[in-house]
Amino acid sequence: MASKPRKDVVKNDRRILRAAGDLIRIDPDNLTIAAVAERAGLSVPTVYRYYSSAEVLRGRYMAEVDQQIRDYSHECDTAGTALFDDVLSEWGRIIEVYGPGLVQLRSRSGFLARLNGGDPTMQMLREAWERPIRRVLRANDIDGSYFEGALFLLNMMFDPRELLDLTARGNSMEQTIGIMKTAYLGAIRAWRDQDTPTV
After folding, report:
1. Residue 136 belongs to what H/E stretch?
2. Domains of the chain: which residue ranges?
């Protein structure tokens, strides 16, 4: 049986990730281990014991956020298509906290290329949204073969950059999620009605 990490190890890791998130939001291009150590109140060697480079730390920060939405989705017991609404609302709350940093960390590779290439972040995203999206597809009489296309569309329409752009125009995050949900459902229903080829 694996032993649990020591409390000081967990505490330090959280301090490092919190400091990294703060710096990513402020100046993502200049994220360094030294800057993270200073902001976290830890020594540089201590931070290096957890993360071998700033790039590794960036990846861990992204995974931490993706894990939050995946875990919420898995633990949510909401019935029917309301599950999709609940997971979307949680995504909105996550964006309000982490969004500015996530905007700076978006990959240059295409979504489907990463999804089909086995990118761990994309796998986590799939795990978070597969159950909610498949419920929406079934409720709208849309064949399950459209799932990857629906996931692709969700990733595009609920991108942190675009959600924050809409909230900057005076909409609350709740209103923004509602606006984009209506557009999303309209898009996948149009695919069904036009017998669009699957992505």
Report:
1. helix 120-139
2. 1-52, 61-193
| pLDDT tens-digit readout, 14-65 | 889 888 888 887 777 778 999 999 999 999 999 999 999 988 888 888 888 8
- CB-based contacts of 68: which residues, under 8 Å, 6+ apart? 94
Q: What is the pTM of this model?
A: 0.76
Q: Are 55 and 86 in contact (CB under 8 A)?
A: no
Let me know if 31 is exposed, middle or buried by CB neighbors in 10 A (0-12, 13-18, 19+): buried
- Rounded Cα gap, residues 135 and 150, in angstroms: 12
Q: Which CATH architecture has domain 1-52?
A: Orthogonal Bundle (1.10)
Burial of 69 per CB tally in 10 Å (0-12, 13-18, 19+): buried
Calpha distance 99→151 (Å, rounded)? 19
Asked if 23 and 40 count as a contact pair (C-beta separation under 8 A), the reply is: no
Per residue in 71-85, pLDDT (tens digit) is 999 999 999 999 999
3-state class (DSSP) for residue 80: coil
